[in-house]
# Entry
Amino acid sequence: MSLPAVEKVALGAICALGLLVLFLDLPASRVPHRAEVLPPTRAALATAEADARAALARAEREAAAKAEGERLAAVQNPGETEDILPVGHGREEVFARCTACHSTAIIRRSGFSRERWDELMDWMTEKQGMAPLEGEVRTLVVDYLAEHFPPRRNPRNANPFLN
Ligand code: HEC
# Structure
């Protein structure tokens, strides 16, 4: 039995349409069903939040520890050696006793009278917790400081070409 040409074309078109529908539907069937993509549960959300908080706290602690370490390194300046101070009787004692809490920079940039240096020793003991400095060692240290770090002359009276 032979079909008329028009019907052949129509049949062909229907088959092609069927294949097209089948083809288009395939990818759709690969997408997981809605029910498979469940929203996170309350417990999972709480765990994730706790993890994030712990990570943040850890990062903050680490940053604080790092900053403190850098501050201490800058203050104590472990690279310093005794010869950063001018040669003189008492240098060794000053370096040994005065660099436990801060570098010599704080000393080198200071300039005081002997009396003021002497007072400063008491202040360092009373307010900053330095071991009391007494007797001969105190005399040695204060003499050294007064000799090498005297009050600065008024820079306005100083001749910049002679200094
Ligand atoms: C126990 C710790 C400690 C020791 C040891 C110590 N200092 Fe200090 N010193 C401090 C502290 C803390 C400060 C204050 C720093 C600041 O300004 O925050 C200070 C400050 C100073 C200052 C600056 C004072 C000012 O008012 O400008 C000088 C100078 C100084 N010290 C000299 C000395 C000398 C010299 C010795 C050794 C005899 C010494 N320090 C030993 C803790 C110490």
Remarks:
- DSSP finds six helices and no strands in the chain.
